[in-house]
Write a structure and sequence with these properties.
Length: 186
């Protein structure tokens, strides 16, 4: 049971990282939508502000709400953020997307080791997190290049954005299934 959960989790994290990127496409997207470069680069700061907020605030909320449910909410929040990105063409909506994405993305990064420890205990925790981190790294390697390739083919960011939404929805479904399986094994 636990081994199956680990592989589902590793797959989920790797799959979720196949998104367009944490913001590497954000500035070119903004520039393509007529946003001045001086404003477009500020979108990266919005991701950073959201990221810092997610690390500080969402962990405490997750401890009160429950970590498995919180992880589902955070992954679902990333799906919603990317869905919003599909409809953003001006600075303030893009800044809102960047903040929300940073908030949920770094919230799950901060929460993931605690959830792994909850499910598996402290034994072999470093190895388990290492396996999941390797899957994330593979997604990080593939995601931005795939997004750039898709843009070159379609001259649009819509395919990588929609693929990211789909990846996060699949990841949330896997998380829900893993949480149910874990709850039944207790």
């Amino acid at each position: 049971m636990q081994r199956g959960w680990l592989f589902r989790q590793a797959f989920k994290y790797g799959l979720a990282r196949l998104h367009a990127t944490d913001g590497g496409q954000m500035v070119p997207y903004a520039l393509d939508n007529g946003i001045p470069q001086s404003s477009a680069v500020l979108l990266m700061a919005a991701i950073g502000i959201g990221s810092t907020s997610g690390r500080f605030f969402l962990g405490g909320i997750a401890d009160r709400l429950g970590r498995p449910l919180s992880l589902v909410v955070m992954v679902s929040g990333m799906a919603v953020a990317f869905l919003l990105w599909a409809f953003c063409a001006s600075f303030w909506p893009l800044a809102a997307f960047a903040f929300v994405f940073g908030l949920f993305y770094r919230g799950w990064v901060a929460l993931m080791p605690a959830v792994v420890a909850d499910y598996f205990g402290p034994r072999n925790l470093g190895t388990l997190i290492g396996v999941i981190s390797m899957c994330i790294a593979i997604g990080t390697l593939i995601g931005p290049s795939a997004a750039g390739f898709a843009f070159d083919l379609r001259h649009s960011y819509m395919l990588p954005i929609v693929a990211s939404v789909g990846a996060y929805v699949v990841a949330a479904a896997i998380l829900i299934d893993a949480s149910r399986s874990h709850a039944q094994s207790l």
